[in-house]
Design goal:
mainly beta, Jelly Rolls, Endonuclease I-creI, nine-stranded mixed sheet, seven-stranded mixed sheet, 4 helices
């Protein structure tokens, strides 16, 4: 993994397993800042010997999805928004998937436990037997502290967290609601490839993420939202997928109405015409699930609404 000397580097020797309103930042950074954040794989290094028994024995309850942080952002106050643009993701040469009973959508079905390695070469990922997959790195967990208490980095909510959708990747800007002074930002859980919905597990891998971090004063968000050059995206988080989809679409309608002056009836019409709804974290890991709505900016630019 190459380094960018123009950015402040934050190493992964300090990680958190919770987004915690009372945590002490490992570092304070001004806004705006350009950072390179090192991240561990979601297994926290417990799968790298490819021994399933060792992996099972080394796992520590509550120590999944380590996030580098918390990172305190100077001048970020409750009621503000943290703006995080992902400039690039550089992954390690090898990632891992541990297949164990009880995990994922089909976790109730018996399988032979195993750990598989996925080797990264250029833009490809190779798994046992020589099967080649395209590399498509993405960030699984990104968030800030809640207003009070602590939420595990394996979980997700209106603070962000383990959202797990594939478009949190290079070129995407993530907007997160600030609930506590400094925001207490954290990031981790990179996958070199992951199917939509994460039916079992994405390919977990250590990485370096180049980020641009800023603060938007007074933009008080209920939920995170996301932006690329071509799309606006909103997220829904709930205990069941139907409710998550409903929340994502509702958030998109409100963003179109309030943020882009689209008439309410037209926003409803566009929900079916051009808004794509996709799965995020829907694998059934004992945490809430996520869905997201995706709206093309070209529709906003081409029509009088």
């Amino acid at each position: 993994m190459e380094s960018n000397s123009d950015r402040l580097r934050i190493q992964s020797h300090c990680v958190a397993y919770n987004f915690d309103s009372e945590a002490v930042p490992i570092i304070w950074v001004p806004a705006p800042s350009h950072l390179t954040v090192e991240t561990r794989d979601a297994y926290d290094g417990t799968a790298d010997d490819l021994n399933i028994q060792s992996y099972i024995e080394r796992r520590v309850p509550g120590r999944m999805n380590p996030c580098t942080g918390p990172i305190g952002i100077t001048d970020a106050e409750p009621g503000d928004t943290v703006q995080v643009t992902i400039d690039s993701i550089r992954v390690a040469p090898r990632g891992y998937v541990a297949a164990v009973p009880g995990i994922g959508i089909l976790g109730d079905r018996a399988i032979v436990p195993s750990v598989e390695a996925f080797d990264v070469e250029g833009g490809d990922v190779y798994v046992a037997g020589g099967m080649r997959l395209p590399a498509r790195p993405m960030v699984g967990t990104i968030g800030v502290a809640p207003a009070s208490g602590a939420i595990a980095t394996l979980s997700l909510g209106d603070h962000g967290g383990n959202l797990d959708f594939n478009e949190i990747t290079t070129g995407t800007t993530v907007y997160l609601p600030v609930r506590v002074p400094g925001a207490l930002f954290g990031v981790g859980d990179v996958h070199v490839t992951m199917g939509d919905g994460e039916a079992h597990s994405g390919v977990n891998i250590a990485a370096e993420i180049d980020l641009a971090v800023g603060v938007i004063p007074g933009e008080n968000l209920d939920l995170p939202w996301f932006e690329t050059d071509s799309h606006v995206m909103t997220v829904g988080v709930a205990d069941d997928l139907g409710s998550a989809v409903r929340q994502a679409v509702d958030s998109m309608e409100r963003r179109l109405i309030l943020g882009h002056q689209v008439a309410p009836t037209m926003a409803r019409i566009l929900s079916g015409a051009v808004t794509d709804v996709r799965l995020g974290q829907a694998g059934g890991y004992g945490v809430p699930v996520s869905a997201y709505a995706r709206f093309p900016k070209s529709a906003l630019a081409s029509a009088d609404m």
